[in-house]
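Final report, results section. Input specification for complex C-07:
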Amino acid sequence: MSDARVVRLLVFRVGQLVCAAEADRVREILPRLAPTRIPGAPPVVAGLMNVRGTLVTVVEGWRALRQPPPPAEAGEGAGGSGTTVLLEVDGGKKVLGFTVDEVVDLLSVGGEALERRQALPGIDPTLVRAVGRRAGQLFVVLDTDALLTPILSS
Amino acid sequence: MDLSQYAELFLAESREHLSACNQLLLEWERAPASPVPVGGLFRAVHTVKGMAATMGYARVTDVAHRTENLLDLLRRGSQPATDDLLQLLFRARDSLEQAVELSVVGREDEIDAAEILADLDGAAAALAGPGGRPAPAPGPAPAVEAPAVAGRLVQVTLRSEAPLKGGRALLVLKKAQALGPVRNVTPSETAFESDDFDGRFSFRIETTAQAADVERVVRAAGDVEHLTVGGEERRAPSPGAAPGAAQAPDAKSRHIRVDLRRLDGLMDLIGELVTARGRLNELAAQRRDPAVDDVAIQISRLSTELQAEIIQARMTPVWQVFDRFPRLVRDLARELGKQVAFRVEGKEIELDRAILDELGDPLLHLLRNAVDHGIEAPAERRSRGKKPEGEIVLAAVRERASVVISVSDDGRGIARAKILERAKRDGVVDPHAEALSDDQLLRVLARPGFSTAESVTSVSGRGVGIDVAMTRIRALGGSIDIRSQEGKGTTFVLRLPVTLAIVRALIAGVGAERYALPLTYVSETVEFGVQATTTVEGREAIVLRDRVVPLVHLRRLLGVTGDAPSRCPIIVLEMGDRRSGIVVDGMLGQQEIVVKGFDAPQGTLPVFSGATIMGDGIPALILDAGGLL
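Structure output:
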């Protein structure tokens, strides 16, 4: 992230963690739907979702980021409230769904607003591209490729 | 000679030429001074005339002849096209089309061409000038006082299998006339139209062109088998070695016209072949004869390949549907007093014929909306600092396994604020919503009857047809998206599968989950709990007609929690001599499903060949028989 560049970020919350993805990678934001389970897939995969005739594999956000399960999750399985963000991976060749608790904001930040710290406590540093600050609160800018690509088989 | 067998061919070829006429007229309308379109129009109409004469369709021949007369005058006089003339020619083309369609179905007597014929003759007389008479039809060659043997002798033999030889021969003369005067046509052109014209004829041409050029021009007419120029034989070029000749006859001969019903019939037969193949496999398995097994396996492979070939043969370039739109857009724009430049991109992109055939209406709706509600009137555009002429683009692009078709206009876009108000009132969106996303916008627009209930000024009618278009596209396994920017324009994006890989499948229930099992390898179903089970090589199995069928409990395999009912169906799969009984909780019916791919995560069990979307919109995975056996 060069200092001169203005980066647009979609900020969302997953459990207690506030994170962001580059808005350029966000294809769509949809309400959360109960997905169809894919037998054999790891728990981090919520299942398949029908997005206007296209099948999208959905990743459970809190599991991918190793956050505690949301309260609703403890009782019943998938479903309930929440939002699914469709993210482009692999240079836009694939689209995956990523469930979040809520979308918080759309920010335009200059490169300088992103402190070059590569980690925050409680999150795997290899998944973090940068750390930013919004309304006094720190958030991590996720490396969505590093986060999502390993979930798909080659 | 029985001509009825040629009627369909005549119809198909005439439609192509008439479609070309539309494109040429539109081109001419855009560039009235261009000398190019009139030449093409003349040739197209002339060809239709030749073919119609061969078929004995006198009325078609008549309309074509008078249209050709007028075109010839325009061509010779290098007249720019006036609006009146173009309107007349558009009408003449439409009459010709009607005459062709009616003649082919034997309703020639219903053709009412008196008015257009009178108008054509009137226009021709006016062009020919005072005291002038309409030029004679260019068809009959001026073989009046031919100075014995002037010019080079050209002898032509058309391919024996060429249909409508008379029309082809006229086309050859026409092409040759571009090089110089043609005389001594033998037999005469009237003989071309006779039933026993065998495709052999000769003529003399006065030209300075090289024999090779004469040959190139003559061969460009198509279906020329044999040709001599000035006594020198011109051998047909070897296939694929026609340099520079874009419309080389060889290129043409690699394609044949196939009636779509034939392809559908082939598809049905393939379906039966697949069933028979299953039966053969069953018999082969019973015989336990390796030689029979080999044949059965070979037939399995061949029928699969055949199916793939037929699916490929069904692929059709989109221009077959797109080509009628320029004229439609033009007529509509004219009617509404709009100026529209219409562009088509990606004409050569291919789609399954079955999908393409369904696309015409939805695209028509979208184009009509674009002209009617998208593009502003010229004055309004000017006042907004836009070019008075609006632009509509219809584009097809291949994107991996799908084809994306977009309809974009640079018009006024959709007034979101008004739609939002309306959407809130109808409860489509949250009453506190401040803006509509593109997706919400589409959902509002696609509500049946959305725009008819109340006029929403600048967007009235926007919803008409969108719900219809959306339903159609979804039924094809496709999707529609919208992008609209107020003041800048609107784009509809249609995404479609390249082929409708449809299979018939059993839908099985396991717990609360559903799975589709293509019927191809399902041989029968029996009931578990009734059949005695045994254990063979450590696996649970049933014995079915003296054969051991190992069981697979889908519930266990797929890790579905809960308990199975005590009695449940077993779906017996059979592939070659392998059999397997799939134990499921229940059968939810049989249906055709569209096979779709999905991005399988790491660890996904290797028993799925794809997924499908069920009637309720929820995805269901498709079990792969090969993976289960």
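The longest helix of chain A spans residues 71-75. DSSP finds three helices and ten strands in chain A. This concludes the modelling results for the funded period.
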